[in-house]
Amino acid sequence: MEGQSELRSLAGVSAAAMAAMSYARFASARVPAGLPRLAALLPVVCLLPLLPFAFASVHLRGISAFFLAWLSLFKLLLLSLGLGPLHPSLPLFPFLLSSSLPVKLRPSPNPNPNPKSSDLSDLSLLVLSSAVKAVILALIIPLYRFKPLMHPYLVLSLYCVHMYLALEIVLAGAAALARGALGMELEPQFDKPYLASSLRDFWGRRWNLMVSAVLRPAVYDPVRRRRGRAAGVLATFLVSGLMHEAMFSYLTLRPPTGEAAAFFLLHGLCTAAEGWWALRRGAPSPPRWVAAPATLGFVAGTGFWLFFPPILRGGSDEVVLAECAAAKRETLSTRRRGLPPFLFFSLFQQPHAACQLSPSAKSGCLTRLVKTNVTTRCNFY
User: Fold this and answer.
1) Which residue ranges run through the membrane (predicted)?
2) Burial class of 142 by CB neighbour count within 10 A (0 to 12, 13 to 18, 19+)
3) Contact 230, 276 (CB under 8 A)
């Protein structure tokens, strides 16, 4: 029953989002940019943050919050000011997809003489890359059963890889849907963040570029014009930290703790310091083989300190792992039965409430997966 309830919620949220974005498209085409357009879009701006609460699944609630309550919300606020990436002149279907999915249409000044073959090639590469990442993620999930034998930092390192792979898969899936439906070029969403040689390179050019695409025109550019580059960087990281606090509240259903905001404010200060150092004449730059591990080490170390504790504190990580294990089990089960695997179907199967609320979630609480009637340990050991 819970699985059917989540499917109904998914259908309802999707329909509400499409209706809201259709209204936003037609309203923005008829109302001039500025306060009048912002007032016209205000009902949609107020609706989007509420839609993710329709889901009980941590995955669905978190994904929909990121799509709708962050990216779509910022896109509409930019649209109200007459800024991209959305524009009232876009046809309805491209507007709906680009406003509600984490994608950005890429302008192509030099049209490809054979666009269909190019699109198929790009889409094939995207699907293949996502499949490889899904296999790696599926290999990581069984390792969590050995958590009692692992050093806490090793567990957190696995969480880092898990988070990156999951984000890549989800965003690539949205991009594949949009690319296949629109047949248009899209901006990349990640660019090998593990090769970043500095914090500026990591956050500005490699990690989760869809967030950068909305924060740059919404926060960085206006603050930089008035207060300078360093102020623009700090303001951008502060807003990102506040939005991550909101995302964590969607995941954990707990009040913000301020730790995510502190994490991003710290990275903003360090990124601004990097920029100041790079502008100095004759300032030495470390070689890439030193800079890349140092950058990833700093991101991971500060993440262990400030980013992950709000998620771990309430046992939300255990619920996430239980949903991932259910997804893998359901996929294998459907393949054995000769049915098309639907990886996210079992994300609609919620762990028992006792698992989510028990303070001993990390010490091995039992959970009943309602749909499959399979009893499993939340922490897989």
Assistant:
1) 39-58, 65-86, 123-144, 156-182, 231-253, 259-277, 289-308
2) exposed
3) yes
Please give the Cα distance from 181 to 37 (Å, whole number).
29
Token pair, residue 232, equals: 């623009």
**What is the structure's pLDDT at 177?**
81
Taking a C-beta distance cutoff of 8 angstroms, is the pair 66, 247 a contact? yes
CA 274 to chain centre: 26
Residue the block writes with tokens 């999930």: 141
Q: At which residue do the structure tokens 């010490």 appear?
A: 363
Question: SS3 string of 162-177?
Answer: HHHHHHHHHHHHHHHH
Burial (CB count within 10 angstroms: exposed 0-12, middle 13-18, buried 19+), residue 56: middle
Radius of gyration of the chain from its Cα atoms, rounded to whole angstroms: 21
pLDDT of residue 355: 41
- Hunting for tokens 């929909």 — which residue is that? 64
> Which parts of the chain sit beneath pLDDT 70?
1-3, 107-123, 183-185, 281-283, 328, 330-381
The pLDDT, as a whole number, for residue 380 is 35
Query: What are the Cα distances from residue 18, in Å, to 168, 206, 256, 327, 332?
Result: 24, 30, 29, 27, 33
Q: What percent of the chain has pLDDT over 70?
A: 79
pLDDT of amino acid 276: 87
Is residue 78 a contact partner of residue 103, using CB atoms and an 8 Å limit? no
Secondary structure of residue 257 in the 3-state scheme: coil
CB-facing half-sphere around the CA of 265: CA atoms within 13 A: 9
The ranges assigned to domains in the chain are: 2-100
Taken in order 234, 240, 245, 248, the sign of the CA dihedral is negative
Q: CA 180, CA 178: separation in Å to the nearest integer?
A: 5
**Could you tell me the pTM of the whole model?**
0.84
CA angle 173, 159, 374 (to 5 degrees): 75
pLDDT tens figures, 160-169: 999 999 999 9
pLDDT number for residue 365: 34
- Reading the block at residue 60, the tokens are 């669905």
Q: CA 188, CA 185: separation in Å to the nearest integer? A: 9
Query: Which amino acid does the sequence have at 36?
Result: P
